[in-house]
Amino acid sequence: MAAPEQQQPPPPEGSKLLSGLLSGIAQTTYYGNADITEELLRGQLYPEAAPEEFRALRAKMGGLLQSIASADMDLNQLEAFLTAQTKKQGGITSDQAAVIAKFWKNHRVKIHESLISQSRWDNVLKNMNWRVDLKSQSRHVDQINTPVAIVEMELGRSGQESEFLCLEFDEAKVSQMLKKLSEIEESMTVLTQTT
User: Fold this and answer.
1) How high does pLDDT run on average in the chain?
2) CA distance 41 to 28
3) Pairing mode, if any, of strands 124-134 and 147-156?
4) 175-190 pLDDT, tens per residue?
5) N or C: which end of the chain has fewer CB within 10 A?
């Protein structure tokens, strides 16, 4: 006689509520949704909780999510972090840790992309075009027929109109620019190898 298939029990009501709270925190903190307020979350998810009690839970979960997101934890780091949180006095329960782990697994990429876009400076390089021309006119005769690089950079933020910057480089300036870019590349390589 074959053993009956065991079905997964439905998630406890508390885990659905906590998952909803984490989603609400992510909406306000990482996705810029101002419509999700603390009052809305408490009213929808924890209407029976006292405001101070809910504020404490939201602050705790927000702090944990911020720690996880700012470190962009992989699943091994997350497991170690959450295990430590369950053993800490005033920490979280193992059920809460399981909900947080599932939430992070599903939202990690989107939260990371949001953090990257929030941390960028005003303008980013969207596109770059270049060409090499020969100078046909100049104030100085010795500069005629010398090659010059014309570089056009498109700068802006996604969803906004771009600005264009056009630069002209002679051979010496191109060499200087390439040297500086090479130094930047070396510095970035050193940083990525040490982390």
Assistant:
1) 86
2) 11
3) antiparallel
4) 999 999 999 999 988 8
5) N
Tokens read off for 5: 């298939």
* Phi, psi angles (nearest 5°) of residue 149: -95, 130
What are the residue ranges of helices labelled H in the chain? 13-29, 38-45, 51-70, 75-87, 94-119, 171-194
The predicted structure's pLDDT at residue 98: 95
Q: Considering the entire predicted model, what is its pTM?
A: 0.58
User: For residue 119, is pLDDT > 80?
Assistant: no
**125 phi/psi in degrees, rounded to 5:** -75, 115
Is residue 104 exposed (0-12), middle (13-18) or buried (19+ Cβ within 10 Å)? Answer: buried
Measured distance CA(91)–CA(85) in Å, rounded:
5
Torsion, Cα of 8, 25, 34, 122 (10° steps): -120
Q: Average the pLDDT over each of 9-18, 65-74, 112-121, 161-170 and give the range with the smallest value.
A: 9-18
Question: Treating both helix axes as pointing N-terminal to C-terminal, what angle do 13-29 and 51-70 enclose, rounded to 10 degrees?
Answer: 70
